[in-house]
């Protein structure tokens, strides 16, 4: 099977053929991932969503078996690189999210936010020690930045403190909305040094004395992802587990440049998943003695959804290509996240609409995409924050405060 044939088989919603930019090896890894997700995660997916339970081992098994971060085929001609190719990364998120947004979000706090924090902030030794655990999924990580009272204003408002005492740091404070925190083996925690007031990052080990993680309850979105409320009560971290290259918010913004693009990809994948689920139902279900997809009003909505998906793939792939040249631009990632999230929100609503009452049940998959889209629309920078970043660039005027 040629690259073009395999790409079309995997992603029929990609009408403009962006997936042909992938290598045969990359496509085969993605195909293997789909098989693993269907085998290990699909049987428990809806129950996990409804009961707000993370099928951690099933998900990690699928990731490990497919080697989505480490398979040799992903590094052909790029031996020694620590990151997969950005274009592959875009389609990895498409594959994950069209399956389930919670699964993709669980991955992005591990392989996106957490991994990039280690790569950007760590020493060679830390990258070797912790990065290898992340890539192999033998150790789970996450990303602890936001707080109960500080989200969009975290740059100036971060309140968690770190005080150095000899070769040990003592952390105090709270973090909230930290995906995967309860099951993480090591947590990158951002805290403000009480001496120089700079933001620093510390790898807090699971089970550390004074560390408490409670699940955020009663969520209506991304229910599979156990968002944690972290309390740090005199938690001690060795100087050896501080990431020394993070010394101020500038490095945090660099991490966001990478991972905001990832969330643009997640929004793209959510739109694709909702569209595919709606297309399946409307081409199978009959009303008034004809397929739902045979009605003009339904076809118009399907066409709009398809257009949104193609546009979003285009945004994601182009930003990925720019990043592959070494250009990491917050404008690009913010523009892509803003656009793809808007198109996603419209697409999931149309998908729910054409499926009627069936669109609010987990049986059609549409309901998961519909509900999960609301969290994706907000996280990694709300629509408003990303709009203001773009606005500042095109006008030269900052309008945040």
In a nutshell, what does this entry contain?
The chain contains twelve helices and nine strands. With 401 residues, the chain is an alpha+beta fold. Helix 2 packs parallel to helix 4 (86-99).
Strand count, sense and closure of the main sheet?
7 strands, mixed
The end-to-end distance, rounded to whole angstroms, is 55 Å
Helical percent range? Answer: 40-55%
- From the 3D structure, determine the CATH topology of the largest domain: Butyryl-CoA Dehydrogenase, subunit A, domain 3
Tell me what the CATH architecture of the largest domain is: Up-down Bundle
For the record, what CATH class of the largest domain applies? Answer: Mainly Alpha
Number of domains: 3
Please give the radius of gyration in angstroms: 21 Å
What does this 3D model show about the protein?
With 401 residues, this protein is of the alpha+beta class. The chain has three domains: 3-136, Butyryl-Coa Dehydrogenase, subunit A, domain 1, CATH 1.10.540.10; 154-243, Butyryl-CoA Dehydrogenase, subunit A, domain 2 (Beta Barrel); 249-395, Butyryl-CoA Dehydrogenase, subunit A, domain 3, CATH 1.20.140. The protein is 54% helix and 14% strand. It contains twelve helices and nine strands. It has helices at residues 3-10, 24-51, 56-66, 86-99, 101-121, 124-136, 154-157, 249-284, 296-324, 330-354, 366-378, 383-395, and strands at residues 161-165, 168-179, 186-193, 199-205, 211-215, 227-238, 242-243, 286-287, 290-291. A hairpin with a 5-residue loop joins β3 (186-193) and β4. α4 (86-99) packs antiparallel against α9 (296-324). The longest helix has 36 residues, at 249-284. It is globular. 49% of the residues are buried.
């Amino acid at each position: 099977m040629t690259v073009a044939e395999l790409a079309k088989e995997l992603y029929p919603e990609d009408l403009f053929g962006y997936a042909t930019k992938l290598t045969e090896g990359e496509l085969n890894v993605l195909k293997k991932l789909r098989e693993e997700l269907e085998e290990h995660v699909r049987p428990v997916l809806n129950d996990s969503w409804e009961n707000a339970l993370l099928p951690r081992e099933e998900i990690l098994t699928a990731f490990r078996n497919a080697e989505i971060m480490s398979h040799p085929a992903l590094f052909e001609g790029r031996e020694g690189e620590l990151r997969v190719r950005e274009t592959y990364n875009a389609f990895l998120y498409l594959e994950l999210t069209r399956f389930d947004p919670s699964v993709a979000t669980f991955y992005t706090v591990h392989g996106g936010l957490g991994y990039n924090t280690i790569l950007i902030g760590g020493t060679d030794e830390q990258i070797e020690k912790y990065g290898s655990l992340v890539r192999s999924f033998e150790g789970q990580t996450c990303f602890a930045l936001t707080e109960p009272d500080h989200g969009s204003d975290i740059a100036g408002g971060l309140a968690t403190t770190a005080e150095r005492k000899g070769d040990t740091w003592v952390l105090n404070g709270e973090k909230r909305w930290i995906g995967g925190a309860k099951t993480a083996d090591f947590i990158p925690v951002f805290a403000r040094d009480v001496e120089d007031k700079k933001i620093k990052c510390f790898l807090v080990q699971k089970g550390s004395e004074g560390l408490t993680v409670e699940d955020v309850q009663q969520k209506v979105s991304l229910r599979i992802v156990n968002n944690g409320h972290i309390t740090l009560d005199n938690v001690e971290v060795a100087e050896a587990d501080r990431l020394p290259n993070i010394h101020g918010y500038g490095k945090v913004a660099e991490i966001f440049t990478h991972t905001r693009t990832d969330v643009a990809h997640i929004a793209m994948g959510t739109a694709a998943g909702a569209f595919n689920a709606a297309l399946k139902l409307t081409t199978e279900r009959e009303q008034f003695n004809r397929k739902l997809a045979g009605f003009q009003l339904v076809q118009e909505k399907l066409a709009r959804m398809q257009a949104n998906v193609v546009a979003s793939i285009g945004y994601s792939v182009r930003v990925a290509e720019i990043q592959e040249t070494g250009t990491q631009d917050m404008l690009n990632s913010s523009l892509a996240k803003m656009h793809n999230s808007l198109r996603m929100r419209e697409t999931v609503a149309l998908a729910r609409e054409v499926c009627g009452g069936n669109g609010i049940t987990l049986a059609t998959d549409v309901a998961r995409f519909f509900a999960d889209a609301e969290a994706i629309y907000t996280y990694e920078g709300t629509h408003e924050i990303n709009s203001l970043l773009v606005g500042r660039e095109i006008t030269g005027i900052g309008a945040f405060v």
